[in-house]
Design brief:
Elements: E1 8-12, H1 17-28, E2 33-38, E3 62-64, H2 70-74, H3 76-85, E4 93-94, E5 98-102, H4 105-120, E6 128-131, H5 134-140, E7 153-157, E8 161-163, H6 165-178, E9 182-185, E10 191-196, E11 203-208, E12 213-215, E13 218-221, H7 227-230, E14 238-249, H8 251-257, E15 262-265, E16 269-271, E17 275-281, E18 284-293, E19 298-299, E20 301-304, E21 313-316, H9 331-344, E22 355-363, E23 370-373, E24 380-384, H10 397-406, H11 411-417, E25 437-438
Parallel strand pairs: 1-2, 1-13, 2-9, 5-15, 13-24, 19-25
Antiparallel strand pairs: 3-8, 4-8, 5-7, 6-7, 10-11, 11-12, 14-18, 14-22, 15-16, 16-18, 17-18, 20-21, 23-24
Helix pairs in contact: 1-6, 1-10
The protein binds 1-S-(carboxymethyl)-1-thio-beta-D-fructopyranose.
Amino acid sequence: TPLTHDSAIIIVGGAGTIGSSTALHLCRRGYKDITLLDIYGFPSDYSTYGPSQSAGASDINKIIGTSNSGTRGEISEMTMDMWRNDPVFKNYYHEVGELSAASQPEHIADLRKSYEAKSSNRIKSKDLRWLGNRQEILAHCPHLANGLLDGWQGIWNEKAGWGAANDAVDSVGRELRKFGVKMVFGQAGMFDRPLIDEATTRCIGVITKDGRKHHADRVVMATGAWSPGLIDLAGQCVSKCWIVAHLELSEEEARRYKSIPVVYNEEVGFCFEPRFIRNHEPGKDRWIIKLCDEFPGYTRFMETTPFGAEEPIEVSVPRSHSAHPTDTVPEEGRRRLRRVVEVMLPEFKEREFVKSYMCWCTDTADAEWLFCQHPSYPGLYLATGDSGHSFVTLPSAGSQVVDLLEGKASAERMRRWAWRPGQGDSEGTGRGGIAPKDLNDLDGWAHGDDE
Ligand code: FSA
């Protein structure tokens, strides 16, 4: 069945980054019969300002910059242009600048290489500056005056900052409603398995957990970290979590830290300017600084039988904070988070976090997306493999998925996004050979056995 503007298209995970972006681009290209399925809907369907409503995008801030290689790097001009100018996105992008730094010589050398590569090509060199010492860093980040900056050097990017992730996805949701996109959220939107035509093995829709059949001409699985637990991906995606913490500031403190740049140090972590959050806890408005520690992520392997697997297999499966709001984070993660505060925000080194939780992504071995048609089930498309750096592409990722659906993606991109089991790092580290630890082996985090 050729794809036409009247084809029925289902997007599973439709309220996440890649799913909502795909729906937006489909609408803008004239497709009229789009249905989103998701467990949780768009953020404004909720009264609280959650951490993860099961999508990594449910977050108060994410880094928006031009830092990536592969497809994400190639489309970064479109991405940044849309963050700045597209009415759906522009109110949610804060161009406060970003420092990307390190202190160990090998990491500085890598940053320098990336700086030189970027300044010589698509990103205008006037936006980038090499900061070679403390004084140069403080010229752009005066708030770090009391920070522990020994040996720090790095890239200053004037044309970067952060996105109000939750609000940006919500804005996409509002736009999709204007286009008349159908949305099935909650229990009724929970994916169970694809609906497969026995005779042809063609995917002709989705069966949701409530047993209902949803017919479609194309099904797009934009299910992020949940993907390998839903469909057997032959080990191509390994889902991992990273840790987020929130510090609460008084109004006076928030005023002093307002508009600080994003500071990222790959050996430590990163943090953002304070954001005023309505309903951070029900009924409580607060000024919040979000921060994260940097480490290779944690897996959570368990036996499960995703669709397509003949018997149970070991898959790293997310544990969602929204379903388990009393979960805490591993003790070693807490220590790393405290270190981020000590190094970057020493004024608050005694202050307890008001919240900490884990946020899930799914890594491919080469950090490139897995955007392809399933080799065994025509009509079933995978749009996953975010590899931790895809929120930035909220405005643009969907254009790539739609190119794939329309057969317009270049042969080169199709080759990179292709179904590619066994390629690259079979351990799924994908991060310079450092194997991630597994949450099952870690102590000091509370989690009920209620799953
Ligand atoms: O600029 C960016 O793409 C930030 S990625 C943020 C992050 O927490 C990583 O630092 C981490 O290593 C993992 O990839 C999840 O995302």
